[in-house]
Amino acid sequence: MKNSHCTNVLLRLAAVAALVLAFVESAAAAENSPPDGFTALFNGENLDGWWGVKSEDPRLYMALSEEDLAAKKTASLEDIRQHWRVENGELINDGTGLYLTTDRFYSDFELLVSYKMVPGSDSGIYLRGTPQVSIWDATDETKFKHGADKGSGGLWNNPPGTPGKDPLVFADRPIGQWDEMRVVMTGERVSVWLNGKLVVDHARLYNYYDRAKPEAERLPLPKVGPIQLQTHGREMRFRNVYLREIGADESNKILASRNDKGFQSVFNGKDLSGWAGETENYTVEDGAIMCKPEKGGTIFTDGEYGDFAVRLEFQLPPGGNNGLAVRYPGEGHGTWDSFCELQVLDDGHPKYNDPDYPKFYNLNPRQAHGSVYARIPAHRGYLRPTGEWNFQESTIVGSTVKVELNGFVILEADVAKADPATFMYALDHFPGRDVMKGHFGFNGHNDPVRFRDIRIKKLD
Q: Which CATH number fits domain 261-458: 3.40.50.880, 2.60.120.560, 1.20.1730.10, 2.30.42.60?
């Protein structure tokens, strides 16, 4: 009887244990079930879909061949298995080793993640492989000199004094509780919510890997890259890691809506009222100004501007060419007699890049999209695929020009300080270079480039 009783007790205990385990597994699975529209980056069960790398410029490994990148990922997994594990639907790191890195690379996205710290934790989330949204123990006095007392969620690797480096408010929960973070990234622009509070508001994330280079040589962030979970000396736990990719139209709306106070529309979406110049060579279709095929010339606003910012969307046909006339005097050539022309060009088209193309132009870097035409080159590679709408904000203050394309700063320069020896033409080819007030317009070059949602903000 005694043995039978013990057996029954053991069986009941085993049954209870099985139920508990089933409940825990069910709860863990529920914890890692993504909301509608999101994909779970962590499946709650294992490390599938992840590999490991530390702080390494993602451009370097993304440039590897498919075979070499696969070998790099495989070699990292031994370290990942030593320092990362999965328990009860939680990703757990022991505080050392490589950073957990997604196999996939992402462009614009919304990220949701929950994390839990122990005393002294120091962690972060790398966006497109770039550090970082900070996570750390805000009560750790040894890190107060680094800003830990301000709380988590800031873009800690940004230069001192730049927006986003420190969180706007303190939003951390007590150590040992789960914190909930939401990140929206469009181009280089990042917004962060921690436990429902906005801690970073549409701030630019700077390129950490180029910080030692002269400013003119620093690249924007990569257009795509992985999500990384960093750990730094203490245990960290993560769960509910979800991501939703943001398409071009939604990204444009986000970029256009942020910090938009003071911007006034200069195009009614119906006709060219308020515009002058060679208007017969342009038409309005589907709410957009379009240069007629095989036509061109300059059209410009009735209003004149000194210092200003202009926001607009544009759509390029294959190989399309146009330009933004900045401070155009109202007569003369839209490129040479304006303060400058900001190039609008499908600079990835084969006719600008492939010598074997029937009509090859051998594009000069100062002709690439966003460049101060013929004088200062912009960074390339940030246009959306041909046919999609791009969002651009151009800011002109005095002789300085800043171009932000799809959320990436591709040009920031003082035109007056550029070396004329580097220009495509002699300095006297630019008689409008000292114009400090004029009209805004478009310089058409025979291609049906489209512009819409054109808004200008006076800065003077």
A: 2.60.120.560
Q: Architecture of 25-246 per CATH?
A: Sandwich (2.60)
Q: What does the radius of gyration of the chain's CA atoms come to, in whole angstroms?
A: 27
CB 436 within 8 Å of CB 326: no
Cα-based distances in Å from 230 to 133, 208, 233, 327, 344: 10, 15, 10, 47, 39
CB 346 within 8 A of CB 383: yes
HEC readout, 384-417: CCCCCEEEEEEEEECCEEEEEECCEEEEEEEHHH
**Residues with Cβ within 8 Å of residue 96, at least 6 apart in sequence:** 83, 231, 233
pLDDT for 30 equals 61
pLDDT, tens digit, 9 for 90 and up, residues 10-53: 444 344 334 333 333 344 446 789 999 999 999 999 999 999 99
To the nearest 10°, report the CA torsion of 85, 89, 95, 100. Answer: 70
Distance, in Å, from the CA atom of 258 to the CA atom of 273, rounded to the nearest integer, reads: 27
Q: Is 85 exposed, middle or buried (0-12, 13-18, 19+ CB in 10 A)?
A: middle
Q: Residue 145 carries which side chain, given as an amino acid letter?
A: K
User: Are 188 and 220 contacting, i.e. CB atoms less than 8 angstroms apart?
Assistant: yes
Every domain of the chain and the residues it spans: 25-246, 261-458
Contact 142, 115 (CB under 8 A): no
The pLDDT, as a whole number, for residue 194 is 98
**CATH topology of 25-246 equal to that of 261-458?**
yes
Nearest to 132 by CA among 152, 115, 105, 108: 152
Cross-strand pairs, 304: 439
Of 263, 371, 262, which is closest to residue 311 (Cα–Cα)? 263
* Average pLDDT, rounded, for the chain: 93
